[in-house]
Amino acid sequence: MEKAPPSRDGQNMLHIHDRLRASILRGLLAPGQVTSQLELARDLGVGRTPLREALRLLQREGLVLQEPNRRVRIAALSVSDAEEIYTLRITLEAMAMRLTVPRLTPEDFAELEGLYAQMEHYIRTQDIERLDGPHRAFHLRFVQAAGPRWVEEIGRLFDHAERYRLSFFHAHPERGQLRQAEHRAMLDAAVQRDVEAAVRCMARHYAHTALAVFAQLAPGYVSEKLNTVLETIMSDSSTALQFGTR
Prior knowledge:
This protein is mainly α. It folds into two domains: 8-74, Orthogonal Bundle (Arc Repressor Mutant, subunit A); 79-242, GntR ligand-binding domain-like (Four Helix Bundle (Hemerythrin (Met), subunit A), Up-down Bundle), CATH 1.20.120. Helix content is 71%, strand content 4%. It has a three-stranded antiparallel sheet.
């Protein structure tokens, strides 16, 4: 049966959801901030009914908490949440890359080189807002052969990680070139058709970011979960040790 087109209210709700989600992920609505449905409706110029439906979707995604008296709390940043995000990303993307990298074509590599060049420019000019598009596309291009459900879930995890990565990047913009060197290593390994090397580069890339986030949120935190994932993905216990996760 053919699906009916979304109603005007449904379209409005999705538009509100997308606006709020983008504001949360980019930190415009700060982690831990408390607001109200009334205040949000006024600021967005929208009705309360579609707003409530949009907030329900955001609550399911773990980005907001609904509190008594129609108050809304933006989900705080936490080491436990960051740990789940990054360990899931490494685990899922390792398998997806093993499926994708052998299938990459010369056209795919040309696209990846273009995305890399865009990231290089935006990192150099510290244009964080424009960096997001090519950065997201670069990582998702490495996992596309795994299938749409995989790509959707990996994309969602990428978006959630942005709340943490952007906080880290703003605090240490000079480290953007280190992350870019890690992107280069991933791409070079893929060009050489060295699938496992590409996977290791991805895992190191995320582990470096995760450890930087942990250090900000909970100095001295030891992530056994990250250590276990790295050992499993890389099949080398010494790899996890060099990241200081034990």
